[in-house]
From TrEMBL:
InterPro entries: Leprecan_dom, Oxoglu/Fe-dep_dioxygenase_dom, P3H, Pro_4_hyd_alph, Pro_4_hyd_alph_FE2OG_OXY, TPR-like_helical_dom_sf. Gene3D superfamilies: q2cbj1_9rhob like domain, Tetratricopeptide repeat domain. It is an enzyme of class 1 (oxidoreductase). GO terms for molecular function: iron ion binding; L-ascorbic acid binding; procollagen-proline 3-dioxygenase activity. This is procollagen-proline 3-dioxygenase. Residues 569-683 form the Fe2OG dioxygenase domain. Belongs to the leprecan family. PANTHER family: LEPRECAN 1 (PTHR14049), PROLYL 3-HYDROXYLASE 1 (PTHR14049:SF5). The gene is P3H1. One of its GO terms (biological process) is collagen metabolic process. It holds the Pfam family 2OG-FeII_Oxy_3.
Amino acid sequence: FATMELRYALTFLCLVVVPACTSDTEVSSHFVLEPYDFLFDTAVEAYYKGDWLSVILNMEKALKNKATLRKVKAQCRQSCANQTAFGEPVAGLGVPIPGTGSVEDLGFFQKILKRADCVNSCETEKVGAPSLHLVSEEIELEFKKRSPYNYLQVAYFKINKLPKAVAAANTFFLTNPDHMEMRQNLDYYRMMAGVQEDDFKDLEARPHMAQFLLGKSYYSDDSFILAAEHFESAVDEYFIADKECRVLCEGAYNYDGYNYMEYSADLFQSMSDHYLQVLSCKQHCAVELALTAGRDKPFEDFLPSHFNYLQFSYYNTEKYEKAIECAKTYLLFHPEDEVMNQNLNYYSAVLGEDKAAAISARQVVKRYIQQSLLEKELLYFGYEAFGITFVDPDSWTPEDVMPKKLREKQKAERETAARITEEIGNLMKEIENLVEEKKKDSSEMAKIIVPQEDGALLYSDIKVTMTSKQLNGSQRVLLDGVITDEECRELHRLSNTAALKGDGYRGRPSPHSPSEMFQGVTVLKAVKLGQDGKVPLKSARLFFDLSEKVRKVLESYFRLDTPLYFTYSHLVCRSAIDEKQEDRKDMSHPVHVDNCVLVSEVNECVKEPPAYTYRDYSAILYLNEDFEGGEFIFTELDAKTVTAEVHPKCGRMVGFGAGKENPHGVKAVTRGQRCAVALWFTLDPAHEEKVRKTDVTRRDHWQHGGTVVSTVAAQQEGPEFNSTIRPGSFCVEFACSPRVCVGSLRVLRLPPTVQRHAVWGNRLIG
């Protein structure tokens, strides 16, 4: 292991510190660019150590090196294309024309080999061996999401470089507009002294798009001179970016899900596959260049629209020659455009027909269209001949570019797809009707099925005090000895230490009765407080373990064939408000049913929202008896006729089915505090309590203080909060009221393993 680390260190020194050092098997005497994934991981590790200067140094360098790598690849490929042009003669052959003979074929492939050697030598000389800069898809995605700027904005904020922090934050947010924390950070920055509106930059803005957006802004303000200047700059930058995008398509073959070990093709088939893939990539550049941060879709008809804006801008500044040139250029894309043809006729009449006729469309656009149409023809040929799908990204492509047979085929496919869609819609309606009928049948069957009970209790200390029969109902059980007196006291202490008024009831301290005050704590809250050292961690663990114990007991006693899943776990205390007990006639918790809306007037229970229709079983575990009132009752559906009454005491638990067979409530607590653990369960794993799915409940996290999950809505930290967003809605469920979805889960990101840093030193070079 020590030898391996030493080799990594020596390799690092050779590559970075002493570029000219050599070994017995000299790899390269040229400059080596540090891999940007190595720098990214170094920055992330520094971030979790709080080494902000190191974060900035390495992350900025990672961004710079990634841009340098892209630029070098583009320059090398463009330069080598010019140096090894296929039109140049070969000694003894003249200009080799492939297919005219085997010798001529050799001359053609000689050019290809020389170009490959040129590109490889150029890249190796400027950035090091290509294999050194191979990065994982995960890292590519991080840069695509602009994650480096998330780290940078915190680091700059920490060292009080506010303009740079703001620019980094804004750059990240433009690509991640749903990131609530960054939105809050930007709002926070706007209120800070010294922050200017100009600080909110897009550090990743591409020149052609930046100029285009500026042009649009001036155009909207009727500043046509400035608009024209920026649109012209945008056109120039567009073709520079297009050339770079196209040449970068000439990379390695993407097997697109195929196992490259099984890929088998002859010389010309493999060349065709790769070349068609390159052409498809080049066509997609039109989409790539029309995208900008903050927009889900590319600008429609992006390049032609430049000339639409330009012709009108020049008209408004009375530059009719330019207006005619841009109108004619636009018509290269859309020759039948009626409005533009009318504009052109008007400009020509103003300038003079003879002068107008002498003005031609821009040559650079003519060449662009000619090249693009030839590429499309080849791609459509590949579609017909080899079945390699091509979707044209441009709306201006003439219809006849697509082969007639393929047009007819696609038309037939569209008609077939429409017919199938209609048939599927009809089939879905039939299925819905069948499902509804099945539900009705199931409901009828459920009425005559007798649920099983009297299963094993799994724990010797637990005793059955009353069964369903003794409780005058079905799917009911009263157990004693579920927890010990000491466990009751510990949970009681936890409730008084950690519980918040109104927790579990949308913050309302008296949700069911104005004569009582409710306070509660969830498993998640208890765990977080335990890991923060605000309550004993063992108390939070006890809360979690006892809830699991109850689940197992219910599964066993009711002989369930499928497991139960928690939907909500709540340690709740209700306390009598002394001054509000006189002449009191209400209940602590009115009679209700856990999975349907009770309509007691007609003895019905409607199973639909806002009720938690997915709840199947419920349990209440009591912690004390030193209070007055607070008896748990079962009733008939009229909510008046009491069928059974349970007096709480430590270790006693009532478990029951959550359906309409078990309406229940709690009588008024008239003195003291009544505490219990309320648990609700489902047979459907899709509705499992979110905290049970997260890492906070894993045993190793109890031992080592693992990741804490918190909702976005509950956090108000500033920019320094080192977290990431895990996409997806997070639904918060309340004890006896409809659940609320509050956005996304935020989880602390763990730093990458140190082993990532050894990878660079061990890569093949050349």
